Structures are given as C-alpha cells and as structure tokens.
Amino acid sequence: MQFDTIYINNCTGRLDNTVLDATSCTPATVGTSDIFSTFPTLLPPGNHPRLLLNGPCLWFESWSDTSIKDEQDHIEFYLYEVLCVWQFNKRYNSPIGLIAQDCEIKEFDMIETWCLKHNKTFSIYTNEYGLLDGLEHTRYADWPIIHLDTFSLCYGYDPAEIKPLDQYTIAQPIQYRFNCFTYRWDQHRMLAAGMLREMGGNCVTHYHRTRATPVKWPYKHSTRYIRLLNTKNALDSNVPLTVEAHTILAVSQSDSAVPLNPHTLSTDRLEPYILSSFASVVCETNYEYPWAQLSEKTVNAARFETPFLLLAGPRSLELCRQWGLKTFDQWWDESYDQEVDPLKRFDLVFDIIERLQKMSLAELTEIKADMKQTLLHNRNLFRTGEIKKNLIKGYK
Q1: Mutual angle of helices 361-370 and 372-383, in 10-degree steps
Q2: Which of 151, 179, 227, 359 is the most buried (most CB within 10 A)?
Q3: How far is CA 11 from the centre of its chain?
Q4: DSSP 335
Q5: Angle, CA of 193, 196 and 198, to the nearest 5°
Q6: Same-domain status, 287 and 359
Q7: Is residue 277 assigned to a domain?
Q8: Euclidean distance between CA atoms 381 and 391, whole angstroms
Q9: pLDDT score of 1
Q10: What is the pLDDT of residue 73?
C-alpha cells in the first residue's frame, strides 16, 4: 500500500509511541529517537501506511529511503493541533495581532524541505480559519493551505445522551450571569477569570494561580488596566473558585501542566452550571494570533443551549457560522469578532459583559427566552450529527 497522506500532530521531535499507523490506529511500539533503525519496523518494504507524525519532527526532513521515489507525486498533510508561530527560534506571541514578515511555522518548513528533497508537491490542511489572511506578509501567503476542522470531527453527543429534539431546558432558572471554564492557563483566560471573579457570586468559573502565566500581549492601555492588574494579583492570594464538590488547592502552571484532573472536571460535571447560566464566556485555545480556531470549549456552550461570547482569535464567530451555528448579533454587538488587536478585542467583549452584568436576572431570563429558537438550532446541530457535514468542508 502506498501512502499519499501524512498526518502531523504536536511536536516532540522524536519518533516514539505517539506515532501512529492512521490506517489501523495502532500505536507504533517504538521508544527511540533513532529514525533509521525504527522506520523499517513501521514501514515494511512495499507496505507504507499513512502516517500520523508528532511534528514538526526533527528527523522527518532527513528521512528518506529508496522506495519514496515510487510514492504519489502529491502528498496531503493534515495538521491536527493548533499551530505556533516562531521568530528567531522563540515563540512569537503576536502582541498586536499581526504576524511579522520574518516569522516561521516549523511544520510548514518541515513539509517544504521534505517535499523538495523528494520532488513531491503538497497540500496542507489545518484547523486555523483565515490562516492565509493572517500570513499575508510572510512567505507562506500563497501556499496551498486549506482550512479543515479535523480537530473538531469528534464533537457531538454520544448516542446514549441524545434526547428528543423538541426537549429543551432553557427554561431552567438562571443562577449565574456567566460561566467561564478554563482548562489551561493563558493570558486571556487569566484576565477573564479575574474580571468575572470581581463581578461576584453571579458568575461561576474555576481558575488556578496566575504567577507563572506569561504576558503575551500588552494590556497597559486597556480602559480597565488597573482593574485587570488588581484582579490578576487577587487570583494569587485567594483559594480558587471551583465547580468541584471538594476544594482544589491553587496550582501554579510551572508546577503542573494539567492542573485539573479531567476525570473530576468533565463536561458532564459542567453541564448543570452551563445550563443554569445566562451565557458562556469562552476562552478558546488560540487568542492572539490573527485567525480563528474552535474547540470543545465553544462546542460545550452550543450543545448545552447557551449563548456565548468568544475570547478567541478574530473571525471565530464567522467560523461558527460556517459550521452552521447561529450567533447573537441580534442581542449584542459582535463586531469584536473582526478586531485583530488582542487587547482591543478583549475590551470589546468585556464592554458587552459589563452591560449585561448590570441587568437583573429577570431581564436576562427574558433575553434568553427570546433566544430560544437560536439556542435550539445550535444544540440540534450536534444532537442530529448535522454539524459534521459542515466540519468536513475544506475552504481556504
């Protein structure tokens, strides 16, 4: 079997048991970085599987054997994880939301080097929506890069969870104005948790110590700068709010890469909090880069019948609509979705949050009732599986 497809996941720089035969989904039982000794085991002569690489792999650019020349002339590369941008071998954090001309994406460079070496052409499929627009000043601007939501294909209800399509719970009394659940630390999540905590008991969130959180984009010029600074500092000196039944101690990002046990904080445990909130403040994985990317964080709000405000990359709401979801411009200004500057986008989202925070729960209940058809539409996209038809459409 020849291969014409290569899948690339996150970076480890070596060949190990994260490299899969994507045809059978069987882990490769190797644990060495010696590519030349392990590839014969993975790729028996004349029987090349499709590959899921953990890249950008340092060894991939130099990988070669005599049979590659017989493979397909055009190779498709599928990148499953969120991309990082580099400049001078350091992560580039896009502080004003623009990608500089000399920035690099290592996965792309790896692909180009390998294909040039073996006289192959290529296409690249990524999860980032609007990526080429964000790379317009770089050498990648005219590359064959296509958006495809491969990262999101697993989303949807388990058949055991499916309820009748006309059964809804949005009439549930609102206990919280907003929920905001942040699984990993990042600057926009830190600031959002701090601001919502300051708003008091009508917001439900969980967070951990912020001392190790890097500042990727400046926020000194925010209209809320002093409040943001104070709430950030306050997070370090208080026991974190939590949706758990038991107390979770504050955890520094530098001490633990996964501060919450996913078995004790699952979407099932979050569901009652989301359903009893007016809206979700969703802090997506990508924020400062000038392209969109959606994950289970947005999905959870939609499938639990809740309106959402996105602290996410620009054009994320546009991507929601590409998925077939309806958004909420009938009830508030969604122009923040087009703002590239991460600070300005943050302030625009919190302009909305603060306006809604001033409303009574009775007023919010009335607004949410008015959203009923929109919320049911979004939920049913997942309950019926219809959403997957839109996720597999490739578009630049």
Answers
A1: 60
A2: 179
A3: 16
A4: G
A5: 110
A6: yes
A7: yes
A8: 11
A9: 33
A10: 84
> Are 136 and 241 in the same domain?
no
pLDDT band at 367 (very low <50, low <70, confident <90, very high): very high
Site of tokens 């699952």: 266
Cα 158 to Cα 152, 204, 240, distances in angstroms: 15, 26, 31
Q: Give me the number of domains the chain comprises.
A: 2
pLDDT reading at 222 higher than 60: yes
Q: In which element (H, E) is residue 123 found?
A: strand 121-126
For residue 396, being part of any structural domain is answered with: no
Q: Tell me the helix, strand and coil percentages in the chain, rounded to 5.
A: 35, 15, 50
By residue range, what is the domain housing residue 333?
159-391
Q: Verify that 253 and 353 share a domain, yes or no.
A: yes
Residue after which a domain boundary falls, among 123, 148, 173: 148
DSSP 8-state secondary structure symbol assigned to residue 393:
-
Cα 164-165-166 angle, rounded to 5 deg: 90
Largest CA distance in the chain: 71
- pLDDT bucket at 19, cuts 50 / 70 / 90: very low
Of the residues 148, 182, 210, which one is the last residue of a structural domain? 148
Residue 154: inside a domain, yes or no?
A: no
pLDDT in tens, 318-363: 999 999 999 999 999 999 999 999 999 999 999 999 999 999 999 9
Burial zone of 171 (CB within 10 Å; 0-12 exposed, 13-18 middle, 19+ buried): exposed
Average pLDDT (41-60) is: 52
- Determine the pLDDT at residue 331: 98
